[in-house]
Amino acid sequence: MAHKFHRYSDMVQDEDIGDKLPNKLRYIKMASRPAGTLIFCLCLILIISIPCIIIMLKMPEDSGGFTVAAAILTGVVASGLVAISIELANNYRHNLKRFVVLSEYLYMVSMYEYFVDWGSHGDYESFEGQTKTNWFEERITITPRIQAVARIILEFGPVIEDAVKTGREYLSVKELRCAQQAVDAADKLGEVIGKFICNHLLTRDCYLFDLLDEPLRSKIKGFAEKAGIYLDNNDLESIVCDYCLTNIDELGAISNDDDTNESDLFYRNQIIHCLWDFDQAMHRLQEFVKVEPVVYKHVKSHLR
Prior knowledge:
This protein has helices spanning 9-12, 21-28, 36-58, 64-101, 103-110, 112-120, 144-166, 173-199, 216-227, 236-246, 258-289, 296-301. By secondary structure, the chain is mostly helical.
């Protein structure tokens, strides 16, 4: 299924675009990003050159003014071309290194919609076309897209966090802001899960699976057995996180106790908020990577 967000999505399905002209052009265009300095140099050349050209057109060739204007024009154009050439080389070197250092990050972000499609289990919703959520509901409705994000967030969170930590210098200010929002949403999700676990511990003195109250303990045990996960107290938060993301709709209805039910409903809504914030940040990040070259052998493996 092709989602027409990335410029290369339609081509990826039928042909190896790694050697195609559009993909080669993406490598060439690395030299023009960012374009601010290049545009400034060109404008400066034009601002100085235009008056010189006008003077040369109005004055005789043997006059001193013509000679001075010609010398200034020659110097400005020459120095301007040198500055532009250096800037193009620096841009290409920087963007090529970004492409190598952040290869996993660029790949994951560019493939985000494909992973959402996979996590939707045939019920895909685009970001713009997803079901509207009423955030003022006591029990917030989970859209198919949010359910899909819940299935993939644990795969994307660590990659985005690693890019922010180790590749910060290769991210633009706006891109870094969006990436940090995604990391914050994933971290917030971890905090919510931690509070959810504490809310179900029989005692706060320790953090063990055997101290989870019922029926959550039985549900976690059944989930782990079904998924083939070995229950380990060191991985308690990870296992409970997997359970919550897989069974969001059950939260708020796992106990007959009114207080526990209301508390779980609160955590359920908080989890949905975190997933929405993460999805929104990832959607914005795609704008920054859609101009990057495509490594087809990676893309191809996820389209089979």
